[in-house]
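Write out this protein's structure.
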Amino acid sequence: MKRAFVKRSDQVDIMEKEMAKCQWPYLIAGDFNDTPASYAVNQVTKGLNNSFIKKGSGFGKTYNGKFPNFQIDYIATSKDFEILNYQITKAKLSDHFPVRTDIRFIETASAD
């Protein structure tokens, strides 16, 4: 478990550097295999629109396994997007429930 934590932390550090350089609106989504209180989730979603925090409710359980109430799948966007909704579909298609969010690009006035 310690090796997985260290590896995930290293991956997060790489992601943070890439996100800091990114000049375009972006979305990050996926199976982080980590809880909302973890270093990885907090670092990656820091300064972003976390769709569950913006529009979700309850525990946000996305893991369909034996451990109850685990949220390990996330969708987060740069501030260029508005989170419109958040939904977890309780379909037993895998060990994860499908997660969906609708987003809208926020148009900004050009500086012309």
